[in-house]
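From the pipeline queue, job 12 of 40. The input is one protein chain; the requested action is below.

Action: predict structure.
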Amino acid sequence: MKHSLILCTICLGLAACGAPMERLGLAGPNADKTAALPAAEDADQASYDPVTSAPRPPAAARTVEALDTTTPEQRAAAVAPAAAGARVLGTTVVSLGSATEPGLWIKTPLVKTEMQGRVKNPATGKSSTVMLIPIEGPATAGSRMSLAALRLIGASLTDLTSVEISTLR
């Protein structure tokens, strides 16, 4: 017990050392270098289409509405009817992906490269444009879908839902 108390005290003390050092401008030789680097999330978002991307939710977000950072304009554009010529890739069972990962996306083994596509919930008839993101696994494996996309197609956030995935062209 005594050792645990000492270990916890040391850990808390070391964790607290960074904040006073930063306030005094003594954060170390690497502080300026890391501040100049662009955030990884900014670089990732630059590659996404404005219809399917969204800003990260705030760290304090705890409700579905706070976690879904897509705008009304993005949602309207995503549910607009698709142009003719879409190619159906297959059907997959989806579950909720990371609720803090913004945008309209599905991570699925049905694609080999990242591209825009559509998902349709046969149970509701609703569909949405999403970013199709490849993941490893057999084509029969399940997929993970964004919170915003699940909401647009009327799927449950807690159940498994069968969806149809297609390309846009």
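Job complete. The chain has six helices and six strands.
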